[in-house]
Each structure stands twice: as structure tokens, then as C-alpha cells.
Design brief:
α5 crosses α6. The protein is an alpha/beta fold. It is built from six helices and 17 strands. The relative contact order is 0.17.
């Protein structure tokens, strides 16, 4: 599978811009997929610079309803006139950070009929499944993030988060946006061969806790590719413990996985 990082917090080469957000282009033997759309339309300019034609994308996936993964949605719908966009039915609900600032998504004014709200286990294409962990009672650390429920704000349970599983031969590749429901939980529950996405550890400042997370992840099957909300300092600590089982993502990278 080909992976092109269209948007991430850092950039690895000239000619592309980085922003706090995530957007990945995935190319299997049969489909071209856009996974998340960054905070703005910058992912589209990066795609052009990297030789990715967004008009040819077969379908798009939104991992969850935060602005830094959905801000480029209207731009994508302008550039691609046919691809459906798959997201959780809970994604458009209001979401807030620990300072009560709105961090949710804004629905596009046009082409809303192309937004497909899908249940757990929905298959957008042969060999691909969209999954969630709503039914799982994982221990979740919301880090102050909130959602609106019955008119009041409560700690996030991240029910709007979904993951794309791609099967290639005997391999299972899981793509996650931020892994808000816990990277160890997700890795253990799905047990893929490869896991791509943010770990949401940027607010975890305890090196000992990060070292324990690294050891937990090493006990599980995947090889990991991460960036965005993992945090740069946090990545360095994880990398020290995980070695070749952990790889960095950065805007401009093209990887064959």
C-alpha cells in the first residue's frame, strides 16, 4: 500500500506546508482513498505539490469530528465531484477543548448528500471495513476535551471516532486519526499488523508513563507509523523504547507499507 502524508504537524521537505492537523492519501491495488482533510485547504495544495490528484480519489474517510481533521472538507468536495465521504453519525455533534473553545467540524454548505453516516462494520469497498469501539468499556483519558449532550457539556467519550481497516492478503492495516480512545486499547482490541495514525499523547509529559506505554505497545503485534497529536518530545521517548517498531510521519513523506 502506498501512503502519502498530505498534512501533518511537521514537514520533511520544501514545497509543502505543515499545520496542526492530519490528512493521508492511501493507494491500494484497487482504490484511492483520502483519510482526513487537515485543518484548512492546505492539504490540497500539498497534494498538488506531491503529485496526488484528489479528483481521482474514490472515497474519503473522516476519522472523527474535530476541526483539525475536517477543516478541508469543503475544499475536497470542490476538487472531487463524485467521491462519497464516510463519517460517524456522531461526528457533527459539538465538541470543545478544555478551555471551552469549539473544536468541532463545520458541515459544508453544498454536496451534503455525499456525506455518508455509517455504522460499525460498514464496508466502503471490498477488503475494507470502517470500525468503531463504541460498545467497548475502555478506560479513556479525555484530557479535558468535552462533548455536548442534552444541552450540557460532559467529558468526551469519543463515540464519533472510527478507524479504517484495510486487508491486503494476510495483512491487516488499521488507520486511525488521533486514537482518542487510547492507543493501547485500540491496538489491543483490533490487533492489526500495521497501525497508522496519531497517538494523542502530546499532553502526556511524564517520561515514565511514556516509557510504560512504549512497553505496552511492544507487547502487541503492530508496527506503528505515527505523528500529529503524538507530540515530538513524546515520539522521541517512545522511539527510544520501541526502535524499529515505531516510525515517524511528516508532511511530504511517501511510504510503501
Amino acid at each position: 500500500m502506498k501512503l502519502v502524508v498530505l498534512e501533518e504537524n511537521t514537514a520533511c521537505c520544501p514545497g509543502v506546508t505543515a499545520e496542526h492537523g492530519l490528512s493521508l492519501y492511501l493507494e491500494t491495488g484497487t482504490h484511492r482513498i483520502l483519510f482526513d482533510m487537515g485543518q484548512t485547504g492546505a492539504f490540497a495544495e500539498n497534494a498538488a505539490a506531491l503529485g496526488v490528484d484528489l479528483a481521482r480519489v474514490d472515497f474519503a474517510v473522516i476519522s472523527h469530528g474535530h476541526y483539525d481533521h475536517t477543516g478541508g472538507l469543503a475544499r475536497f468536495l470542490e476538487l472531487n465531484s463524485t467521491a462519497p465521504v464516510y463519517l460517524s453519525p456522531f461526528a457533527p455533534e459539538p465538541h470543545y477543548n478544555a478551555k471551552d473553545a469549539f473544536i468541532g467540524m463545520t458541515l459544508p454548505e453544498r454536496d451534503r448528500e455525499r456525506l455518508i453516516f455509517c455504522p460499525d462494520g460498514f464496508s466502503p469497498a471490498p477488503g475494507m471495513i470502517l470500525k468503531n469501539t463504541i460498545s467497548c468499556t475502555f478506560p479513556i483519558e479525555p484530557y479535558g476535551l468535552q462533548m455536548e449532550q442534552e444541552g450540557r457539556r460532559v467529558p468526551e467519550d469519543f463515540r464519533h471516532e472510527q478507524y479504517l481497516e484495510i486487508r491486503e492478503g494476510t495483512r491487516r492495516i488499521l488507520v486511525s486519526g488521533c486514537s482518542h480512545r487510547g492507543i493501547q486499547n485500540i491496538s489491543r482490541y483490533f490487533s492489526p499488523d500495521i497501525l497508522i495514525g496519531g497517538f494523542h499523547l502530546m499532553k502526556q509529559e511524564d517520561p515514565r508513563a511514556l516509557a510504560r506505554i512504549a512497553q505496552d505497545l511492544l507487547r502487541l503485534p503492530p508496527v506503528y507509523y505515527t505523528g500529529h497529536c503524538t507530540g515530538l518530545a513524546q515520539y522521541d521517548i517512545l522511539k527510544e523504547g520501541m526502535g524499529s517498531r515505531l516510525h515517524r510521519l511528516s508532511t511530504g513523506m511517501t511510504l510503501n507499507i
